[in-house]
Amino acid sequence: MEREVASIALPLPSIPRVKLGTEGLEVSQLGLGCMGMSMAYGAPKPEEEMIKLIRHAVDIGVTFLDTADMYGPHTNELLVGKVRQLLLLLLLLLDVVLKIPGLFLFAL
Questions:
Q1: By C-alpha distance, which of 79, 3, 69 is closest to 48?
Q2: What's the structural domain count of the chain?
Q3: What single DSSP character describes residue 7?
Q4: Which among 37, 97, 29, 34 has a CA at the least distance from the CA of 60?
């Protein structure tokens, strides 16, 4: 995956993964703390900007998003849900357009 900056294509960094416990669960070694999105460091941030931030984190391989009810309640979880909805809709569209069987179900 690449991103254009000043007409130069730069590769996005890849985030290493680590296993948690003995059940085979893997998460990114780098996580995204969501507390500052809705409280603690000034006023809550604009939702559109936070959705872009979460999407960028997911794009580079971050799979560990730190949220908690005390930050909202449920404010950051709803943001993460909106990002997931957008990604699943995109995958569904790609599945229909590119006719790749199972692409959408693989993402669930």
A1: 79
A2: 1
A3: T
A4: 29
- 107: which residues sit within 8 A by CB, 6+ positions away? 87, 88, 91
Instruction: Name the residue among 108, 38, 42, 41 with its Cα closest to residue 78.
Output: 38
Q: What is the CATH number of the domain that holds 68?
A: 3.20.20.100
65 near 80, Cβ under 8 Å?
yes
The boundaries of the domain holding residue 90 are 2-107
Q: How would DSSP label each residue in 43-72?
A: SPPPHHHHHHHHHHHHHTT--EEE--GGGS
Query: pTM for this structure?
Result: 0.66
Determine whether 41 is an active site residue.
no
| Residue among 37, 54, 67, 71 flagged as catalytic | 71
Which positions ≥6 away from 58 have C-beta within 8 Å? Answer: 83, 87
The 10s digit of each residue's pLDDT in 26-68 is 888 988 888 888 888 888 889 899 999 988 888 888 888 888 8
